[in-house]
Amino acid sequence: MTPTRRQLLALLAGGAVFGPLAAAAPAPAVTGIPADQLGRITYLDFWASWCTPCAAAFPWLNQMQDAHGPRGLRVLGIGLDAQTDRGDRFLQQHPARFSILRDPEGRLAEHYGVEGMPYAVIIDRQGQILHRHTGFRPADRASYEQAIIAALAERGGA
Amino acid sequence: MNRGRAVLAIGLLLLGSGCSSLGARPWQREALARPEMNPDAEPLRAALDDHTYFSKEAASGGRGFGGGGCGCN
Amino acid sequence: MTTPPSRLGLAVCALLGLPATAPAADASWEIDTATLYYGESGRVSLLEPMIAARRRWDDDRSLGLKLTLDTLTGPSPNGATPAGSAQTISGPSGNGAATTAPGEIPLDDQFRDTRVALAVDYAAPLLGAWTAAYGLNASNEYDYLSLGGSLRLQRDFNQRNTTLALGLAYASDRLEPVGGVPQPLSVKDASAKEDGSTDSKSVTDLLLGITQIIDPVSLVRVNLVLSQSSGYLNDPYKILSVLDAEGEPLRYLYEGRPDRRLKSGLFAEYLRDIDGDTLRGSYRYQTDDWGVDSHTVELAYRLPFAGRQYIEPQLRYYQQTAADFYRVALDEAESEGLQAATADYRLGGMSSVTIGAQYGYRLRSGSELSLRLGYYLQTPDQGPLPAQAAEGLSRFGELVPETTAVMATVGYRFSW
């Protein structure tokens, strides 16, 4: 093989190998949402107005808040729209029966290591991460709910 | 076919070099989610163009598919 | 006769993807239609309606169907050069002779039927994070049949900032030209052609591509393409003039191209969001073993206005070098011992410009109407004339035709 060809293959291989590694796994967070928001098992849902599956998740999130709220679950939707008026319009079209927090600069997203949209993180009373998953697929709703039930059973209770 | 090999070499360089350091965080894809920012947004127009120009010129194709968008799900 | 769109390796059409935009929340059929009118003044005109339907499911599977019709009518240059006296050249079946006035570029008026093409594709997740798309396509017209299949593999990396695509397509075509398949470089009207004779060709295409998000407002796509054709690659209706010293035709020969062609190319596209406007630019370089090298540059800028409308000016520049075996015409000396020769202006040197604009309007229901208008101007780069006939030919002005055309496309897409 000529030197040039070897270099070219190395470049291509390098990009292919180190590329995926660069998307490093996020470190577990202890703080993130404001301290006065801790104290309950919280399901953080990261959403944005331009994300279609995020809209599909809202009715289900309402159901989860209604069903598991009495058992101590708190759903917290974190809006990542850089332009908050777009987030406002989204909330008018998709009403939420759960709390909403706005994160236009993406600091909370960065902190919790959001890997895709929508993104869900379940945290305990101290803010320790119990579960996370990317995306919202209607077919997987049962498994998402299982994660909530497991979190409540493990760290929940009055 | 020296020219063909040069094309392949430039292409491999472009493909292999530093792809991993570029990009947008998942929550920063609002502009990329717009349909106009999808390179495959108008497949019929692309097909009609390819047919038209293939009928009048010697070259054809090249466009391909996949990628971009809001990155959701 | 212009090479109708069916001659395009439908394989390549199959590799043109379908939109990856987030679908309507309710899994429904997305219908997309476009109808092209193409008209060259005094020459061919074409009407090509297309309708595509796509259905997506929540588990990332999708099914697409596309139907294309095209009707092409009107005369086009047959490859012969102008002469001092009127030329009468018979049609492909030996009758229907067309007479060309002195000094005019000869045209032939092909009877053309309607072409029908159908393409189906199905995409589904494969192992792990890979997605596969399988395509089948068929195209039929009175003198041509094409069948093909394709496979596309795709995977995302780097939190969907990088997408790798691999594509393979194959098409097998069969020609049954009116009047039979001529022997390449044989003398027109002198040699026997078997009516009803057929010939075939096959095309294999390979694509390797990367789409890379650069930053929150821009992305780039780079593709490498390879295409191998083999079989009967000639246009059975095209001829060359064999000229005497005065530039008058002695006889006509059917064209003859090599029976293999390997094309390779690089395509790069850049998209950028500029405060809600969209800039799109692309460059394609293509080269092949016939000696044709080409460059294509396209530029478009989409300007939304009044909330639901947009205007998008578009510009395209193209240039190519002539094929090694391209000849404006032949003289007696050259007509002996030829391996390949063609006077088809589409394999000659040329440059072209397309200037146009697209207008779109999104209705309240979410459906979108679009209108695209373009003007195409192609200027040939004639190249060298046959030595013995050069002086004779210089009497005439244009030997290789210039092409100007108007294109209009109406599009409508909606969910159903």
Describe this structure in words.
- The complex is a heterotrimer of chains A (158), B (73) and C (416).
- Chain A is an alpha/beta fold and 158 residues long.
- Chain A has helices spanning 3-22, 52-68, 84-93, 107-112, 141-155, and strands at residues 41-47, 73-79, 99-102, 119-123, 129-134.
- Chain A has 5 helices and 5 strands.
- In chain A, strand 1, helix 2 (52-68) and strand 2 form a beta-alpha-beta unit.
- The model of chain A has no long low-confidence stretch (mean pLDDT 85).
- With 73 residues, chain B is mostly helical.
- The longest helix of chain B has 15 residues, at 2-16.
- Chain C is mostly beta strands and 416 residues long.
- Chain C is built from 2 helices and 23 strands.
- In chain C, the strands form 4 sheets. In chain C, strands 1-2-3-8-9-10-11-12-13-16-17-18-19-21-22-23 form a 16-stranded antiparallel barrel. Chain C has a 3-stranded mixed sheet with strand order 15-14-20, with no helix packed on it.
- The radius of gyration of chain C is 23 Å and the shape is globular.
- The two termini of chain C are 39 Å apart.
- Chains in contact: A-B, A-C, B-C.
- Major sheet description of chain A: 5 strands, mixed
Overall SS class of chain A: alpha/beta
Task: Output the helix-strand order of chain A.
Answer: HEHEHEHEEH
Largest sheet of chain B: none
Comma- or semicolon-separated keywords:
heterotrimer; A: 158 residues; alpha/beta; five-stranded mixed β-sheet; 5 helices; 43% helix; globular; C: 416 residues; mainly beta; 16-stranded antiparallel β-barrel; three-stranded mixed β-sheet; 2 helices
